[in-house]
């Protein structure tokens, strides 16, 4: 029987099998991709070993063919070193292909081992309507705390919310006045939001582990991620409408609602008064304080930068009139001079 | 093969049931044109003059630019993907966004590296997202599409710089806002025309949203670019 090797479009071969898959270039001299398996021993049970044997056989055939051609060409053209023929020579081509195949196999092995995104695939299996419903539900606390509440384990919504929060922070910096040092602010924004989501989730998960709460890491990530929806709304509004009192009201109402939702979900999965208190207290404090921090810290950064910019324009140090005892005029002059130089030094900083 | 087994190794008679009987006809194409002809072409392009190579690549890039400007549902962008165009656009945008003059004390505006990193990592994340949502597009094809669709934003950047030459008052801000908004929605629409086809129909919104965010952030960087003279 014949084994057909399939090749994908053009040169792009998607090697997804862990054993290296079917290499397109494995047949060198022939124009077809048909492998005759009649000569294969049928004593092995697994196809893996068959493939290994086939690979070995192909390599040996190639090497034999390469040697044969090498000797042919060597005897054919006297005095010409094969290496000089470069890439055009048959031997060079063989070697190059060998190196390419070996490298490709190594790379695909490493890729499949470390960068296999398929482990994350089930967490992104959502419909838009589900995402919308979960966003709305994240603001509605459920009062049933005697029975474990259902927490959806998905990562699409939380990730999009974190990125949206980053975008809103950047937008906020722009509307709060002069935009300076955009580059580092952007890095800070991304680092803050992702750091909060991942860090606080891990910390609360650790506390939940200590307090014997029935919640998984994925559920915690998902819960906290959806809790950031309230933060996004509050920050979006308050970066455009600059009233401190409005911010406090929204902080309490919207921040409070989303915190209550998260807290109720965790309480429903914890047994005992003290563990419940610890978990909820920590989560509520961190969540509410983060919103405060986001509002005020970024204001301060921009204001601080503005201050340092206007530093040189500050008025020089004023001389305060003092009742000095009568001393020699030279001493008074000397003191004045020292104070002036001090002022100049301080001003130049 | 079954007959040979039966005659020479009677103790393995049970194995003969495993092999495929020759009565079942095997259908389909089993000759796949592999390798050697394309390899000959590859090696022969080393001999052609550099001008030919450059012109060929530039023509390919130019054709894709035209596809982006008039986004129809064609698969040309996806089939022959290349990353030259995105690289060109990214470098141009980053160079133009590099803010301020050398006399300013603080770094004004994003540095070249920031813009570069944001564009490429943003594209990688969007590609991963669309793959995780079950998309059929490959990694580099998606990078290619997202990179090429930055072109309207690059054009908007050029226009913004020209407008800023005239002055930086309210009117210029409104003009820049309109231009950037138009180009950013054009970018999003263009990339959606190519990317969304590879998704199941009811999940298009899930893929479009990160693309919208990505171009929004780039558009924001363009809009807030202010030159200090």
From TrEMBL, chain A:
Residue intervals passing through the bilayer: 155-173, 185-208, 220-239, 245-265, 277-298
Polar residues biased stretches: 8-17
Keyword annotations of the record: Cell membrane, Cytoplasm, Differentiation, Glycoprotein, Golgi apparatus, Membrane, Transmembrane, Transmembrane helix
GO biological process: cell differentiation
Membrane topology listed for this record: Multi-pass membrane protein
Region (Disordered): 1-23, 61-83
Principal location: membrane
Protein name as catalogued: Protein YIPF3
Lineage: Eukaryota, Metazoa, Chordata, Craniata, Vertebrata
Gene: YIPF3
TrEMBL record, chain B:
Pfam families, sorted: Yip1
UniProtKB keywords: Membrane, Transmembrane, Transmembrane helix
Domain Yip1 span(s) in chain numbering: 70-221
UniProt record, GO biological process: endoplasmic reticulum to Golgi vesicle-mediated transport
InterPro entries for this protein: Yip1/4-like, Yip1_dom
Topological relation to the membrane, as annotated: Multi-pass membrane protein
Subcellular location: Golgi apparatus membrane; Membrane
Transmembrane segments annotated in the record for this chain: 81-100, 112-133, 145-167, 173-195, 207-226
Domain of life: Eukaryota
Keyword presence, Aminoacyl-tRNA synthetase: no
Gene Ontology cellular-component annotations: Golgi membrane; trans-Golgi network
Family designation: Belongs to the YIP1 family.
Name of the featured protein: Protein YIPF
Protein's organism: Esox lucius (Northern pike)
């Amino acid at each position: 029987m014949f084994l057909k090797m399939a090749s994908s479009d053009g040169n792009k071969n998607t090697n997804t099998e862990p054993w290296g898959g079917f290499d397109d270039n494995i047949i060198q001299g022939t124009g077809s991709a048909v492998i005759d398996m009649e000569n294969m021993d049928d004593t092995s049970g697994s196809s893996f070993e068959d493939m290994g044997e086939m690979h070995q056989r192909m390599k040996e055939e190639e090497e034999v063919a390469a040697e044969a051609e090498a000797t042919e060409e060597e005897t054919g053209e006297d005095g010409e070193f094969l290496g000089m023929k470069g890439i055009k020579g048959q031997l060079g081509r063989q070697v190059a292909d060998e190196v390419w195949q070996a490298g490709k196999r190594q790379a695909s092995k490493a890729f499949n081992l470390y960068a296999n995104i398929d482990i994350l695939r089930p967490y992104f299996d959502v419909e838009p309507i589900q995402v919308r419903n979960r966003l709305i539900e994240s603001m509605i606390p459920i009062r049933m705390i005697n029975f474990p509440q259902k927490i959806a384990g998905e990562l699409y919504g939380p990730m999009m919310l974190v990125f949206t929060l980053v975008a809103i922070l950047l937008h906020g910096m722009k509307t709060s006045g002069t935009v300076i040092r955009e580059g580092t602010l952007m890095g800070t924004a991304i680092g803050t939001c992702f750091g909060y989501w991942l860090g606080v989730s891990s910390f609360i998960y650790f506390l939940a582990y200590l307090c014997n709460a029935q919640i998984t890491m994925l559920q915690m990530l998902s819960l906290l991620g959806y809790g950031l929806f309230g933060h996004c709304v509050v920050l979006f509004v308050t970066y455009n409408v600059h009233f401190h009192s409005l911010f406090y009201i929204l902080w309490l109402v919207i921040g409070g609602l989303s915190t209550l939702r998260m807290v109720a979900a965790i309480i429903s999965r914890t047994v005992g008064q003290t563990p419940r208190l610890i978990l909820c207290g920590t989560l509520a404090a961190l969540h509410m304080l983060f919103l405060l921090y986001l509002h005020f810290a970024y204001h301060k950064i921009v204001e601080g930068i503005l201050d340092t910019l206007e530093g040189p324009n500050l008025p020089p140090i004023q001389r305060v009139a003092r009742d000095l005892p009568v001393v020699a005029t030279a001493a008074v002059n000397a003191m004045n001079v020292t104070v002036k130089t001090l002022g100049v030094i301080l001003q130049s900083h | 093969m079954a007959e040979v087994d039966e005659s020479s190794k009677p103790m393995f008679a049970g194995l003969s049931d495993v092999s495929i009987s020759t009565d079942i006809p095997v259908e389909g194409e089993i000759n796949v044109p592999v390798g050697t002809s394309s390899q000959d072409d590859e090696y022969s392009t080393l001999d052609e003059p550099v001008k030919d190579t450059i012109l060929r690549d530039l023509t390919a890039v130019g054709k894709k630019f035209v596809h982006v400007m008039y986004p129809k549902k064609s698969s040309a962008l996806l089939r022959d993907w290349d990353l030259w165009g995105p690289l060109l656009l990214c470098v141009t945008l980053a160079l133009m966004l590099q803010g301020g003059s050398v006399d300013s004390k603080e770094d004004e505006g994003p540095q070249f590296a920031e813009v570069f990193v944001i564009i490429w990592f943003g594209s990688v994340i969007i590609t991963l997202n669309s793959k995780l949502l079950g998309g059929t597009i490959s990694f580099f094809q998606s990078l290619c599409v997202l990179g090429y669709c930055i072109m309207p934003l690059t054009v908007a950047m050029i226009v913004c710089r020209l407008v800023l030459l005239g002055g930086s008052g309210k009117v210029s801000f409104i003009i820049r806002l309109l231009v950037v908004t138009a180009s950013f929605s054009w970018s999003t629409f263009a990339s959606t025309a190519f990317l969304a086809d590879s998704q199941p129909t009811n999940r298009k919104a899930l893929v479009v949203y990160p693309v919208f965010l990505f171009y929004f952030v780039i558009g924001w960087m363009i809009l807030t670019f202010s030159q200090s003279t």
